[in-house]
Amino acid sequence: MDSFIITLIKKRKMSKTFLAISALIGTIIGAGFLGIPYVVMKSGFSIGLFHLIFLAIVLGIIMLYLGEIVLRTKTNHQLPCYAEKYLGKPGKKLMLAAFTFGIYSAIIAYLIAEGESFSFIFTNSIQYQFIFGIAFWIVLSALSYFGLKALEEADSLGFIIIIILVISIIALKISKIDTSNLTYSNPINFFTPFGVILFAYLGFSVVPEMKRIFGKENNLMKKSIICAQIIAFAIYVIFTIVVLGFAGANTPQLSTLALGKPFILLGMITMFTSYITLSIVLIDTFRFDFHLSKAKSWLITIIIPLIAFIILELTNNASFTTILSVGGVISGGLTAILILFMVKNAKKFGNRTPEYEIPYSKILTWFLILVFIIGAILEIINVIK
Fold first, then answer.
1. CATH assignment of 14-384, among 1.20.120.420, 1.20.272.10, 1.20.1740.10, 3.30.930.10
2. What does the alpha-carbon distance between residue 323 and residue 143 come to, in Å, rounded to a whole number?
3. Does the predicted TM-score (pTM) go above 0.85?
């Protein structure tokens, strides 16, 4: 009987761990990873691999810090409220700004990418990306207003599609890899992959939800964060090797365009689920954090990306990877910096003993902050050029 009970307990812990890891991976691995092969092609695979490893470690550390912050707090919150608790109202406002900017960046990038994808599917070119982008915006705007509660699980669907996409690409394209495409290096573009890869690793918003998933078994959080980060890293590296090895210098900004229409369709579904989920999240943020009506929240959510998309298209600046990169360094960088400031105060003023603790280092903290600041400056300079 004792062994039976122990087995049940282990299975229950495994299910919670699997659910938490799936939730974190589903948030980290969004459609942004489709831009990684292009920016790695610009710098060379060895340089891109450095960014993939370095940022996996950096974001992993910061997510572990965030997990500790969450576990040091008795009540459950989302990022803006944790920022308010440990950094005051200015911290909450900055966190909300970073959060909102990141979602807007993703929505704009998806408008560009879906426009290109639909245009390629129907016309075999991306010449009509603007028209298809507007059409996609109209449909998704309507869907986001009416809620579509069934799509609140869109991240899980998106993650399943991503796994299918990666496995299919590996199975069908691995024999066509040209290793010479992986030996090229261009140090002049050393920092080019930074912003897109940073964006692709972002998943801060789900860490507070992991505490709810675990309940009283929060000792599983540290292991789950590490596992999710390792899995995301492995998927990104494998995907990049296969796509870049196959397409080489012809790798487009939206990598699925080089792989054929079945892969384009899978990428489109992934972006669809991400788009609708982010739209609903932003609408709810305006409703509950800014106390706006549903109609006003919906209008602010859909109009700002549309205006930005139109301006970028008319000025010939509509670049999928550029938008992801800017969103990564500004939204991701600012969120990471705020978390690094929060953890010191959480260690002092938290009202709960955490299940794990990551040693705080002032040198490491300021090194990481410097990395994000330099990355943002270099990205902005690159965009201006």
1. 1.20.1740.10
2. 24
3. yes
